[in-house]
Amino acid sequence: MTHADPHHDRRWLILAILGMAQLMVVLDATIVNIALPSAQHDLGFGDSDRQWIVTAYALAFGSLLLLGGRIGDLFGRKWVFITGLIGFAVASAVGGAAQSFGMLVAARAAQGVFGALLAPAALSLLATTFTDPSERNKAFGVFGAIAGSGAAVGLLLGGVLTEALDWRWCLYVNLVFAAVAAFGAFTYMVNQAHPDKPKLDIPGTLTASAGLFALVYGFSHAEQSSWGDATTIGFLAAGLVLLIAFVAIERVVAHPLMPLRVVLDRDRGGSYLAMGLSAIAMFGVFLFLTFYLQQTLGFTPIQSGLAFLPMSAVIMVTATVGQTQLLPRVGPRPLIGVGLTLGAVGMLYLTGIGLHSSYWTHVLPGLIIMGAGMGNVFAPAISGATLGVDPGDAGVASAMVNVMQQVGGSIGTALLSTLAASATTSAIADAGRPTADVVAQAAVHGYTTAFYWSAAIFAVAAVVCTALLRSGARQVDPAAEPVLAH
After folding, report:
1. Which of 38, 45, 70, 336 is the most buried (most CB within 10 A)?
2. Residues forming beta bridges with residue 485, ordered by sequence position
3. Residue 82 · residue 31 · CB < 8 Å
4. Angle between helices 133-164 and 101-129 (to 10 degrees)
5. 451-481: b (≥16 Cβ within 10 Å) or e
6. Confidence (pLDDT) at 151
7. Low-confidence ranges of the chain (pLDDT < 70)
8. Any idea of the CA torsion for 99, 103, 104, 106, to the nearest 10 degrees?
């Protein structure tokens, strides 16, 4: 698209449409967690089954992302985007109306399937619509702010809907987002299918999907059982073998699912790594800090959601300012490096929480530091992950962003939950008598242990990503921009 194109003035409407779809997907990561206790009481399933409400979505979403991204590349992103929106909305409606545990799990899995179409299509549409450097920075600043703050907004919205209405509205609310975004997509986008219609890489699709499924399931199983469990080891090993086979296949096939040139670029590789390691480390904030606020400080779900809003606000400001003002001057390397370092500092600050700590002095400053850090990571990393990619590969390049977030979140869930539980158990054993005060102190010790590990992950990520990313700003050729608005 050139600036003389009559459709050019609609690009910001397209950004609003894509942002709404992205918000729906990101919200879903946390909004359902708030609804779980109420859903469990309503449908009568046990504690051991509760994980499947989250895992069913993660397995379908994580394992099908690369395929979803490539489908958009081959058949056109408008219709894949709209299909993902409508399918996600229908699955959400079924989940909201669920009368049994099995029905809810099936609906969550279907949400994951359509989310795997929707998420890469949204990001690739953004990447191919905005290639003018200054406009691209603004667009990705907004998109990165949504990606970084949506999970915290989900906690608040989930608390409000659950307390004011019913847990089912945590799923029904997706119908509103999807309807508005689908109408906008029908109105303002045109479909652009791949002109050569290359064949789909079936061996690559099978090995990638199976490998990602095995990895996500392995980490989910480790959280529920142990790292030494035979099933955990078997799935993790199978996942690694399948993904190694996938890489080998991609090197030789004529039309690869994931062309290796996409991930072997230093800046894109560093951006993917920053997203993945941040997802691992960030898990500690949303899970354990939510537990701490509600179970230790006695916050309600709505109060817990409100407690995270300052971090969301800081993410929005730093993501947009950093992306528009600093990135064009210095490039992603210093922004991502500083952002990951601030993530480590924020996590270390949160290790100072105790049984009777104040939110204002012991929690809020850490959240603000984290917000500043993540705002400097998400927008530059999401932008860098798709910058300079051939338009025909934009879907799989975008899918890799979501793959890193999903796999990173699964690793973070398993790793940090295991470490926190082990620390809590050891603290109770060392105390001798498990009084209520001892149990409460041990729980806080578990949270702070997870925060220390998160800080270490952020610190390692800062060193590795800074070393990997190139210095200076990179540009793209606006003349290569395709027409996506109509």
Report:
1. 336
2. 189
3. no
4. 160
5. bbbbbebbbebbebbbebbeeeeeebeeeeb
6. 76
7. 1-9, 47-48, 192-198, 284, 473-486
8. -170
CA distance 263 to 240: 17
Separation between Cα atoms, residue 385 and residue 400, nearest integer Å? 8
Residue 328: exposure state from Cβ atoms within 10 A (0-12, 13-18, ≥19): middle
Instruction: Supply the angle between the helices 394-431 and 436-468 in degrees, to the nearest 10.
Output: 150
Q: How much is the pLDDT for 475?
A: 56
Query: What token pair was written down for 419?
Result: 């470490």
The three-state secondary structure class of 104 is: helix
Closest C-alpha to 248, from 204, 201, 193, 197: 204
d(CA 452, CA 449): 5
Contact 315, 148 (CB under 8 A): yes
Q: Residue 446: which H helix or E strand, with range?
A: helix 436-468
CA distance 254 to 186: 34
Residue 160 identity: V
Three-state secondary structure along 6-39? CCHHHHHHHHHHHHHHHHHHHHHHHHHHHHHHHH
The predicted pLDDT at position 481 comes to 40
Between CA 285 and CA 428 the distance in angstroms is: 23
DSSP state of 355: T
| Closest among 155, 371, 349, 384 to 275, alpha carbons compared | 384
**In DSSP terms, which residues pair with 189 in a beta bridge?**
485
* CA distance between the termini of the chain: 11
Give the total residue count for the chain. 486
| pLDDT computed for residue 370 by the predictor | 94
For residue 255, what is the DSSP state? S
CB 37 within 8 A of CB 164: no
Contact assessment for residue 396 and residue 383, using Cβ atoms and an 8 Å cutoff: no
pLDDT in tens, 163-177: 888 889 989 999 999
- Which tokens in the block code for residue 92? 């959400």
- Residue 366 to residues 79, 353, 363: CA-CA distances in angstroms? 42, 10, 5
Tokens representing residue 35 in the block = 């609804």
Q: List Cα–Cα distances, 75 to 78, 192, 395, in angstroms.
A: 9, 7, 11
| Residues contacting 214, CB < 8 A, separation 6+ | 235, 236, 238, 239, 242
Q: What is the dihedral of CA 215, 217, 219, 225, to 10 degrees?
A: -150
Q: What's the helix, strand, coil split of the chain in %, to 5?
A: 80, 0, 15
How far, in whole angstroms, is CA 188 from its chain's centroid? Answer: 26
pLDDT digits (tens, 9 = 90+) for 183-224: 999 888 877 666 666 677 889 889 989 998 898 888 888 877
Q: Which two tokens stand for residue 480?
A: 């290569």
